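Subject: Predicted fold for 7-cyano-7-deazaguanine synthase, 705 residues

User T.R. writes:
Posting the sequence so we have a shared reference for the thread.
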Amino acid sequence: MQDKRYVLCGNASAKGISEDPSRDLRLRLSGKAGHGNITLRIEDVHTKMFRGVPPLFHDLLEIATYVYSADQVVRRGADDVDSFGDGWRRDLHFVVPVRNPDFWNSAEVQETLCSTLGFLSDDQYEFDFVKLDQDHQFQEYLEFNDTQQMYGMPEQVVMFSGGLDSLAGAIDEVVNQKRRVLLVTHKSTSKLNKRHRVLEEMLAAKAGDNVPHRITVRVHKTKELNHEYTQRSRSFLYVSIGATIARMLNLKSVRFYENGVISLNLPVCAQVVGGRATRTTHPRVMKGFQDLLSLVAGEPFTVENPYIWKTKADVVKIITDAGCHDLIKHSMTCTHTWEMTNQHTHCGGCSQCIDRRFAILAAKADQHDPVEHYKVDVFTQSRDKGEDKIMAAAYLERANQVKNLTDVTQFVSSYPDVGRVLKYLNYSSTGQAAQRVFDLYKRHADEVTGALDELGRRYFTQIRERSLPGDCLLRTVYESASVNSVPAVISMEKQPENFFRKRGAVWETRFQGRNTICLLNVDKGAEYINLLLAFPDREMSVYEIAVGNAVNTIEQPAGSGIAPEDIEDGYQVTQGIPLGDAGDVADRRALNECKQQARELFEEMEEARERGDHARIEEIEKEMAALVKYIEGGKGLGGRQRRVGDKRKNVRDAFRNAVDRAIRQIEKYDKPLAEHLKASIKYGNEVVYRPDMAITWEVRPIVNG
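User M.O. replies:
I've generated the structure tokens; pasting them so everyone works from the same file.
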């Protein structure tokens, strides 16, 4: 990671904060008058829409503008793969004047803001919010325009970039669903102005009496502030603009439209990992945006992506089925906007262009997307850049790999990044969520390989005659088969020989340096095994483990493994699996009673062990067993109950069954590991992992997903 850079916003002082004033970045934001080095302009606002903006939303939009601007000023490190984990990431410390510093400095807001931005752009963020000394009216950012006809107040705010996905979303809203919407467009470059205008006019013609209103937003920076092209924080600015406009309209949601393959964005190769892999609508980012906006609004605010389970080919079919195929050639997908010319609107080599070409072909719509609009035809022309060649080959290879996978466990093992997303997909189990992601990528793989097969048929003669360039994708695939030598994902992480740990919402394990396997729908058994492996040869009470796990399961349904700090500080088995803070539960009082009773039982068990009081130990075990059953049955306790039946055997059996289920799943993919666990885990009232020879296990969770 690079050295920390301080970003001083507005009139914020660096006194007592900055370490090296010569490296500080000073950003000053102004409205349409343009007195600062950043100008924010929200254009085409109809006076009927403006109902005032609360101070917290005013703050939000200014914070997002500062973050977006700093993202373009502070360069990332070297552009090579080897530097991604070092110079590529930036350490940014913002000092921002706001109207309500107490709100923005609160722990919940800080955590939500920093963690969401950190994942979005793959950087480290820190914020100090100070009191704004000179306030100004929000109207200074607005340019009113009442020439647009209003067809009633908008029902929905839709983010509109002019790409295929957002175009399909707009068509879906106004043509298919006949809804009144407001399109919000961030115009990052003047090159897009004419194309946006053409799309808006053509969409209006299709909408009839349901013409969408549109608002455009510009952030202009002085020339010396434009250095970095990745701009991964752009979507934070985008959603902040959309949410602020929604608030002006008294609406409580914004919608992005982006296909699920791009949203989930499993890396196809090392060239598109970390900050170079766009996470604009990744479910984790969407959840972070939604949480932050709900805090700012003081009530639930929704950030949606209705296309999360669609492929890009599905998106193209929505456009053609609605009779809007003539809009396709005017849409803009390419990420390299600086290369755009009147003749070539797309570079043809970036990941977005490659994805677009395959999707257009798969949807049988290539007659509506002229190949001459691409600077390079990835299928039939030579590519100058080495990284473009790798990108196209790896994109196809991932499709080949996914197409050949037969079950979801293989998929999750092959693409560990899947584990990062599952807990944000609103499914009752990680297995269901993983299956849905697997089905999406299988359909996408079929579309990609089917499109290439179709091209192979079209160009068979040229391939046979070798009249196409030797490094074009079709020659590469059908002659040298060199695509198979390109790994879909190049791992940057050195893996331990033996691990059994949580990665995101998925348990993964590796034994004696063999392949990594992932476990689905056996969370409880996996968590038990994880705990046992953490403390080899230490006998543990199965009842204490079960009680701790049961309480923790209510609070964190997916489980979280053993927290690193618990291991480092000397994890005490008598405390059970760590109990976190209560989340949203139906009966908070009952949960608190469960937690309190569990702690009392842990303490009494320790005291009974010290006295050697075996009768009391047995009695406490019965109470622990009863507590587990109460919790797992979803019943509130209503008070401590000491006279209960002996449910200890049920708990012992449930513990063993959970572990056995996990081991049976392991056995399908790694029999030596399964045999090792069967031989080394001993059951009873006390359970222990006792291997024949010492094995070092890595059990700490991977928590950055």
